[in-house]
Amino acid sequence: MNKFSKLALVGIVAAGSLAIYASPSFAAEVGSTTSKADITFKDDDGTTPTNPVDPTNPGDNVTPTDPDAPTPTTGKLRLDYVSNIHFGEQTISGSDTTYKAKYDEVLQSDGVTKKYVPTFAQVTDNRGTNAGWKLQVSNDQFKAGTEELTGAVLTLKDATLNSANVSKPTNASTVILSGNSLTQDVVNAPENSGMGVWTNAFGKTIGADETSENASVTLRVPGETKKAADEKYVTTLTWTLTDTPD
């Protein structure tokens, strides 16, 4: 190969290298613009109750089967549900005795399958202010007509809060009601907690059925208290929801 041929070959290789390592070209911007996304909120009018949810699995709606279930409150901050507490028929005893409550019977979301859950209360806060709330309870003494179940004490313990939300309120692990109408704290949701739907259940559900008794909800009756046979003793529990947390 002569001198001129070698020079020509070098030139070809150099040109090829430049082609391989040349910087890629970019498309030139010819214009830009902006767009928006928006949302407008309106108040929950507070007229539609929130369905009760399973206190052991708050993602599932349930339907209580108690025909005398308490009436829910209305408003953006509302008390959706509280359990009636049933101790059933018990044999008269002359000794101090503690009775255990029945579990709540509810229907699962299919409207057919029964489930037994602990005594519970449910609160919904749809105000959007994150201002917090408080739930309290009181009771009078158990009575059958004019006859009073003197000294009877109703205890709700082993309380568990549950929600799909995470801004957790605080609850009293034990609530003791002596029939003296003194208000007891149940749940306190300080500012920036307690939004959405919350249940507060007393006790656990482990394979409960219609015969099961909830050891976390009890009634202690002194042996010396007068007891009339075949009479139903009833107490009224007053549940109060306020927008004034601690």
TrEMBL record:
Residues 39-73 are annotated as: Disordered. This is WxL domain-containing protein. The keyword Calcium does not apply. Pfam families: WxL (PF13731). Keywords: Signal. The keyword Transcription does not apply. Residues 47-73 have a biased composition (Low complexity). Residues 1-27 form the signal peptide. InterPro entries: WxL_dom (IPR027994).
